[in-house]
Amino acid sequence: MDKVVLGLSGGVDSAVAAHLLCESGLEVYGLYLDNGLPGADAAREAAASLSVPLTITDSREAMEQYVCTPFAEAYLRGETPNPCILCNPAVKFRALLDEAERIGAKHIATGHYARAENGAIYRGQPENDQSYMLCRLTPDEVNALLLPLAPYKKTEVRALAEELGLPVAHKPDSMDICFIPDGDYAAWIERRGITPPPGDFVLDGKAVGKHRGIHHYTVGQRRHFGVGFGKRVYVSDICPETNEVRLSSDDAAVWRESFRVRGVNWLVPPEGEIVCGVRIRHSRRELPTGTVTPDGDGAIVRFPAPVRAPTPGQTAAFYDGDRLLGGGFIVK
Fold it and tell me: What is the pTM of this model?
């Protein structure tokens, strides 16, 4: 019987994934990554209910090095990073592979909503596709990967959990940023001893008020400024060099026909320029088609029509139909 190491968080997705893997005839071993916050007890309860052995490993040092520090530094550069995309290849999937090697397991698995087949990753069900989050995985991680929730919608997974009597059937979905449980990333950055100073909101070349620090804002934002401007405005640019948050009263100012990405991770290396689907944020919206021109370790992405707010620090993921080709970080 082949062994598989499953990332078991104590949530409904990973619990149902464990059940499906066991039903498929695999010998399932759970791995919980302890980041220093509550959650291990829920993972133990889920593992016990499924009769799956569980290993708990301390991930705090790796999280700090590969996720938390880069996350905070990106905000100080005026960027808006996605921590899950940072974490997956360097921490979560790396730990799964290490554990698989330790126990002699052939496969690793997670509860992501995407499809993995023959060393390739594909989009999952449109309602809850999470393939975007996997665009920076390494070849070793992809080749070993099983994604048992591929054919399911989230509602179907919850219904199955309830049918199976799993204790996590009605557990709320996990937060977007696991190491910031309250979701207040700006306060988290400040608690690390980093407090970007207030500066100017700039509209049409004129200072029109004071912002609270550039880490509170993202390109395309249109509310929660703490200042009234008498009309709807949008963040069009964040300038750490001048400590300005630039605004526009015209939404067209945040639309772009092209942008550059750095550090592209190609799961399917192109032979040259390609035309493909491009996802610029985790979203259910249909993928716009763009032309991607490799350029050194990055690429230039161009669209036939503008797309809204390609945000520095976020990831652009590339697709050939449903197949994930890779992804890189958007820059100014």
Answer: 0.94
How many domains, the chain?
A: 3
Model pLDDT for residues 224-277, shown as the tens digit of each residue:
998 889 999 999 999 999 999 999 999 999 999 999 999 999 999 999 999 999
Catalytic residues: 87, 178
Q: Quote the domain boundaries for residue 150.
A: 3-164
Q: What is the 3-state secondary structure (H, E, C) of the chain?
A: CCEEEEECCCCHHHHHHHHHHHHCCCEEEEEEEECCCCCHHHHHHHHHHHCCCEEEEECHHHHHHHHHHHHHHHHHCCCCCCHHHHHHHHHHHHHHHHHHHHHCCCEEECCCCEEEECCEEEECCCCCCCHHHHCCCCHHHHHHEECCCCCCCHHHHHHHHHHHCCCCCCCCCCCCCCCCCCCCHHHHHHHCCCCCCCEEEEECCEEEEEECCHHHCCCCCCCCCCCCCCCCCEEEEEECCCCEEEEECCHHHHEEEEEEEEEEEECCCCCCCEEEEEECCCCCCCCCEEEEEEECCEEEEEEEEEEECCCCCCEEEEEECCEEEEEEEEEC
What does the pLDDT look like over 287-329, one tens digit per residue? 899 999 999 999 999 999 999 999 999 999 999 999 999 999 9
* Paired tokens of 78: 């005026």
Instruction: Flag whether 179 is in a domain.
Output: no
Domain edge (last residue) among 249, 273, 294: 249
